[in-house]
Amino acid sequence: MFDLQRFIDDCKAAVQSDDPQGTVRGLMEAAFRDREGVRQVLADAAPAKDVAPLYADENLTVLRVFTPANFISPIHNHLMWVMIGILDGEEKNYLYRRTADGGLEVEREVVLTPETGIFSLRADAIHAIEIPPDRPLSGLHVYGGNILQRSSRSAWDPETMEEVPYRYERLMDFCKVLTRQRQAQAS
After folding, report:
1. What pLDDT is stored for residue 119 in this prediction?
2. Residues 6+ apart with CB under 8 A from 167
């Protein structure tokens, strides 16, 4: 059975290793072999709403993630690596790269499901996510730093594509704009 405290302790040790991201990937792959056990322990550890921090310090954050159906994030960065494990649902990731003129272009799209395995983002990754309208997503994320206190992050205004300082409240406003745009396109 998945042991959350042992997983966190192992991740804390992993971030001190020569290959923190690779070591955490291995820990997540081992944990997700018992997907039902992870699902059950996380359901007991945190309510199925939004994002629930399970552990955070300056080197590591472990989050139980719940994203509602029909959610669309603006483009944003984390400025740290992240390992993503999906328990239920589907998440479409749009991965971006900066262009020579300072803009962004889609580098690739990746659809994450419970069957796709553990997905990693580099520390310099820029991405946006989209959750289908028919079902929410739940998962486990492990970050190589304190994602809850990273103040130098950026988000991109979905209407102007201007890079702006990341603020959670602003991000949620951007999500509302994107959801309205999706609803207008569907009508």
Report:
1. 97
2. 155
165 is a domain residue:
no
How many domains does the chain divide into?
A: 1
For residue 132, pLDDT beyond 90: yes
Is residue 103 a part of any domain in this protein? yes
Q: CATH number, domain at 45?
A: 2.60.120.10
| Coil/strand/helix, residue 185 | helix
Q: Are 44 and 5 spatial neighbours (Cβ–Cβ below 8 Å)? A: no
Query: Given a cut of 80, is residue 150 above it in pLDDT?
Result: no
Distance CA 66, CA 88 (A): 9
- Domain hosting 9: range is 4-149
What per-residue confidence (pLDDT) applies to 117?
A: 92
Composition of the chain by helix, strand, coil, percent to 5:
30, 35, 35
Residue 174 counted as domain residue: no
